[in-house]
Design brief:
Blueprint (H helix, E strand, L loop, with lengths): L4 H5 L14 H7 L2 E10 L5 E12 L5 E11 H20 L5 E8 L22 E9 L4 E3 L7 H14 L2 E3 L11 E4 L9 E3 L27 H5 L3
Parallel strand pairs: 3-4, 7-9
Antiparallel strand pairs: 1-2, 2-3, 4-5, 5-6, 5-8, 7-8
Helix pairs in contact: 2-3, 3-4
Length: about 230
């Protein structure tokens, strides 16, 4: 049995090999994204990836850029799928909210560890540079849309969920488990017969039934009394 990935993660990793001639994937990605080629990521154990890139931005059809903040270290194939998703699906959905997409918040990409950071667990797709955790999107008007926020626009979150589940092999978000309650995990894990996992509950604010007692924190305070009334004697 392979040792726990946490043991490997504590060892120094070798730098990515000096990039050779661009691969077919690199050439395809260059048409839609800004990135740095990293070559092969060499790490202890099962961690690492061939043909990795540092994805910095995605070029929109109109010429504007969507920043990946911070840049994500991914396999070229995964980076290409993320770029196409942002271009073809997320950006058009954002425009319906009244402003162009400007930034995708990256909560995690390449990291040598087990699934859900459980010691001794099966290697996470993050350890293969084959996964991205997305927390939020920023629009050009400064509005930030957090995917796990039940108050965020519902139609937008539904569209993001549907398109993500169509493109990626695994989508884990709120409702899947405690580890993904605050973000959405995307990966391209290969499975037999192209089986996909889509577990993300697009939540809405809880409805307050008529007659339900209001929490003390929600009870409005009385208006302050005039200064004269507060200081006068009775």
């Amino acid at each position: 049995m392979a040792p726990a990935q946490e043991v490997f993660a504590s060892l120094p990793e070798k730098e990515g090999a000096n990039p050779q001639a661009p691969t077919d994937c690199d050439l395809k990605l260059a048409k839609v994204a800004g990135f740095k080629p990293l070559g092969a990521l060499v790490a202890p154990g099962e961690c690492g990836a061939p043909d990795a890139v540092e994805l910095e931005s995605v070029l929109m059809p109109g010429g504007t850029k969507v920043t990946i903040a911070p840049p994500a270290t991914l396999r070229c194939e995964m980076a290409t799928e993320v770029a196409q998703w942002l271009r073809d699906n997320v950006a058009p959905a954002a425009l319906k909210l009244g402003a162009p997409l400007r930034e995708a918040e990256n909560l995690g990409s390449y990291e040598c560890r087990g699934r859900d950071r459980v010691r001794g667990a099966t290697l996470s797709e993050h350890g293969r540079a084959n996964a991205l955790d997305v927390r939020a999107f920023m629009l050009a008007n400064g509005k930030k849309i957090v995917l796990a926020d039940p108050h965020a626009p519902l139609d937008f979150r539904n569209a993001i969920r549907d398109t993500a589940c169509a493109r990626f092999a695994t989508v884990l978000g709120p409702g899947s488990d405690a580890e993904h309650a605050e973000h959405v995990h995307l990966d391209l894990a290969p499975r037999r017969n192209n089986y996909k996992i889509c577990q993300w509950d697009v939540r809405v604010p809880p409805a307050v039934a008529e007659g339900t007692p209001i929490s003390p924190d929600e009870v409005p305070l009385p208006r302050p009394r005039p200064l004269l009334a507060n200081t006068s004697s009775r």
